[in-house]
Amino acid sequence: QVQLVESGGGLVQPGGPLRLSCGVFGSIFSRYSIGWYRQGSGKQRELVAFISSSGITTYADSVKGRFTISRNNAKNTVALQMNSLKPGDTAKYYCYQPPDYWGQGTQVTVSS
Fold it and tell me: Cα–Cα 20 to 30 A to 22, which of 28, 53, 86, 98?
């Protein structure tokens, strides 16, 4: 049974940083790509960033230059470092492993 557990969400002021972490259990972690998605209130879930098993990264245009995804295969974790946060980044953030494994999500709220 594959499980993904996110942590690190919270309330942050505009312009501030926040770091999310995703722990992956029950899979051969190093073989899989891992993604971060988010879903704002009343919006569809959207891709934020993706990292392949070899470390190749992909970002949504809206977060390029501000967010960084990284992985630690020794610890079975994926991190999402978010800088220069904007109110528009407010959403629930989910960790994803193909083909269809999702975490429970962690809320990020950017507000003054």
Answer: 86
